[in-house]
Write a structure and sequence with these properties.
- This is Pectinesterase.
- InterPro entries: Pectin_lyas_fold (IPR012334), Pectin_lyase_fold/virulence (IPR011050), Pectinesterase_Asp_AS (IPR033131), Pectinesterase_cat (IPR000070).
- GO terms for molecular function: pectinesterase activity.
- Keywords: Aspartyl esterase, Cell wall, Hydrolase, Secreted, Signal.
- This protein is an alpha/beta fold.
- The protein folds into two domains: about 150 residues, Pectate Lyase C-like, CATH 2.160.20.10; about 160 residues, Single-stranded right-handed beta-helix, Pectin lyase-like (Pectate Lyase C-like).
- Helices cover about 15% and strands about 30% of the residues.
- Strands 4, 5, 7, 8, 10, 11, 13, 14, 16, 17, 19, 21, 23 and 24 form a 14-stranded parallel β-sheet that branches. The chain has an eleven-stranded parallel β-sheet with strand order 2-3-6-9-12-15-18-20-22-25-26. The chain has a two-stranded parallel sheet with strand order 1-27.
- The radius of gyration is 22 Å and the shape is globular.
- The N terminus is likely disordered.
- The structure holds 2-acetamido-2-deoxy-beta-D-glucopyranose (4 copies).
Length: about 375
């Protein structure tokens, strides 16, 4: 604990010294700031991501979900391989072999290959992990769109277009490529084609990639964590009502004209949903808004993120509804690159202060201390 705090103290001193000439604050204010800062850091430190070995070591972890802890300590592994060397040939079969109301972590070790499967993990199958090989991640692919006719004879709609849909809680994916190959035609209707929909809460994605065009990643609802992920799309390619932290992610636009990277849907000021992007990169083709307001109270923050020239100077869109200008929360903090120039931004975009940015900058934003494990 001590070395981290020392390091943070030094960092704080460097930062505060470099800001001193800009700030006219009384000694009292500064002492208060300092005290707040220390308690925030100590608090933060306690909320550090826990390792599985720490869990196994004993009951000191009161904060972690009890069910999750039990599930992690009773893991089962099953393998999926298209060459018949695994326990199952398809992901579907492997999932079907898992008992409903499963209470153990079930790790599907998915061997390299292209899996053309449409997968839905129901709420009754929590604690599922998709684990691929980092040197050759498996691809799960499909090409359904919102306008494709479903089994009931009706259009699937965006929700059902997903190649992989996760309704279950505590889902984890590592080294997996999620894909929807349906192209987006400008002006077409019903072209929404989701690669992954995550509707369960407490889900984590490490080293994953998401390939699609319109509506690639449906970050539907719940608490989600994305680390070292690649996300590609054209229109609204990260959208939904989730409360999610994206760290160290590569956001690649393939828009041909003007589009929006995110469409965050927060419909009510009392809801805690929102997308936070940290230490990420925004690049690709076309001209993009960082976000457009799907819900009246849409909330998106970018921090420490590199933004290429493709970002429109205005930055953000109210989707043609001016009443949203005073309701949305669109913030930027310490971003870099030509696209991060705030000179042309809409007047209702926010350049966040240190204090305003803080709630979005760590895994505590998604209550990580109760469920996030380092793999
Ligand atoms: C994730 O990818 C990095 C390379 O970007 C690799 O070094 C690391 O081992 C991968 N993590 C896992 C859990 O496979
Ligand atoms: C989707 O893929 C299937 C199988 O490859 C193909 O038969 C079908 O034509 C594709 N649908 C569209 C709309 O591209
Ligand atoms: C927001 O949501 C809360 C809780 O669901 C509800 O009580 C409240 O009426 C909602 N407010 C608006 C403006 O819809
Ligand atoms: C930001 O954009 C304005 C207007 O285009 C320009 O004058 C200014 O030099 C830019 N600032 C930086 C740091 O590039």
């Amino acid at each position: 604990m001590a070395p981290t705090i020392h390091f943070q103290l030094i960092l704080f001193l460097i930062i505060s010294l470099s800001f001193l000439p800009l700030k006219l604050c009384s000694t009292l204010d500064r002492q208060l700031d300092y005290k707040n800062w220390i308690s925030w850091n100590v608090e933060n430190h306690r909320k550090e991501v826990k390792t599985i070995s720490q869990l196994a070591a004993g009951g000191s972890d009161k904060s972690l979900d009890v069910r999750l802890r039990k599930a992690e300590m009773n893991k089962v592994r099953i393998s999926v391989s298209q060459d018949r060397t695994g326990d199952f040939k398809t992901i579907r079969e492997a999932l079907d072999s898992t008992p409903l109301y499963n209470n153990r972590r079930v790790i599907l070790m998915i061997k390299p290959g292209v899996y053309r499967e449409k997968i839905m993990i129901p709420r009754t199958l929590p604690f599922v992990t998709f684990l691929g090989d980092s040197s050759d991640p498996p691809t799960i692919t499909g090409n359904d769109t919102a306008s494709v006719t479903g089994r009931d004879g009706l259009p699937l709609k965006t929700f059902q277009s997903a190649t992989v849909a996760v309704e279950a809680n505590y889902f984890v994916a590592v080294n997996i490529k999620f894909e929807n190959t349906a192209p987006h035609e400008i002006g077409s209707i019903g072209g929404q084609a989701v690669a992954l929909r995550i509707s369960g809460t407490k889900a984590a994605f490490y080293n994953c990639s998401f390939y699609g065009s319109q509506d690639t990643l449906y970050d539907h609802k719940g608490l989600h964590y994305f680390n070292n992920c690649f996300i590609q799309g054209s229109v609204d390619f990260i959208f939904g009502s989730g409360r999610s932290l994206y760290e160290n992610c590569y956001l690649n636009s393939i828009a041909k004209k003007v589009a929006s990277l995110t469409a965050q849907k927060r419909t009510n000021s009392s809801l805690s949903s929102g997308f936070s992007f940290k230490d990420s990169k925004v690049t690709g083709s076309g001209l993009i808004y960082l976000g457009r307001a799907w819900g009246d109270y849409s909330r998106v923050v970018f921090s420490y993120t590199f933004m290429d020239t493709i970002v429109l100077p205005q930055g953000w869109s109210d989707w043609g509804d001016p009443k949203r200008d005073s309701r949305v929360y669109y913030g930027e903090y310490k971003c870099s690159g030509a696209g991060s120039n705030i000179t042309g931004r809409v007047t209702w975009a926010r350049v966040l202060t240190d204090e305003e940015a803080m709630p979005f900058l760590g895994t505590y934003y998604i209550d990580g201390d109760t469920w996030l494990l380092s793999s």
